[in-house]
UniProtKB/TrEMBL annotation:
Lineage start: Bacteria, Bacillati, Bacillota, Clostridia, Eubacteriales
Lineage: superkingdom: Bacteria
Pfam families noted in UniProt: Acetyltransf_1
Domain N-acetyltransferase: start-end pairs: 39-204
InterPro entries linked to this entry: GNAT_dom, MshD_Acetyltransferase
The organism of origin for this protein: Clostridium frigoris
Record's protein name: GNAT family N-acetyltransferase
Length: 204
């Protein structure tokens, strides 16, 4: 909790004083999309916290392919600030934001456990705002995530779960070399309609 608003004030101060320098140093890559727009991929900074919370609230109500629905994202801006700080300090976990015209249109994250024996394993999650579907954003971000994993040299396996009926996502993952390794039957319950979760792995 942040009863005195310290973390938010800190983020606002950082935005005013140092945001341009931080943003330029956090940019990973730029892509020209199918619709002609420029997608900027970059690491998150603490002043992104409010926009990330708003983004998660939006996408939860747009898609049945995520693990959470409308009003089921419980992160606050204060919690997100702490999450950003922690993930930017991690050697095996990372978050990538997809930005178009200064708006977050996609978020992806790779997470690995801290335990040494299993730290080479990771899980990936990607979401894209509905207005930007079918523009190749998921592929752009996946390409950058896999590159960062290979450059890091620690992670050897990337795992994910995907709704069985989400054929477009499955095809994209297979394009990058992910293999189906199993499934969780009736894992998703969308308003009483059940669907399996397909489990996929990419071995680096």
């Amino acid at each position: 909790m942040d009863p005195d608003g310290y973390l938010l004030r800190f983020a606002e101060d950082l935005r005013e004083k140092e945001c341009p320098r931080y943003i330029s140093s956090c940019i990973l890559k730029e892509f020209k999309l199918k619709n002609g727009q420029t997608l900027v991929l970059r690491k998150p900074i603490v002043e992104d916290a409010k926009m990330i919370v708003e983004y998660l609230y939006t996408v939860g109500g747009e898609s049945d392919n995520l693990l959470f629905g409308k009003d089921e994202s419980y992160f606050t801006a204060e919690m997100e600030i702490e999450h950003i700080k922690n993930i930017n300090e991690s050697e095996t976990s990372s978050m990538v934001l997809g930005i178009i015209n200064n708006n977050i249109v996609s978020i992806a994250q790779i997470s690995s456990p801290n335990r040494k024996r299993i730290a080479h394993n990771s899980e990936v999650a990607i979401s894209v705002k509905k207005d930007y579907w079918k523009n190749g954003i998921g592929s752009c971000i996946m390409e950058e995530l896999i590159k960062s994993v290979k450059d890091g040299g620690i992670i050897k396996n990337i795992s994910l779960g995907v709704k069985a009926s989400n054929k477009n996502a499955i095809a994209m993952y297979e394009k990058f070399g992910f293999e189906k390794i199993g499934k969780h039957k009736d894992f998703f319950n969308i308003n009483g309609d059940f669907d399996d979760e397909i489990l996929m792995d990419l071995y680096i």
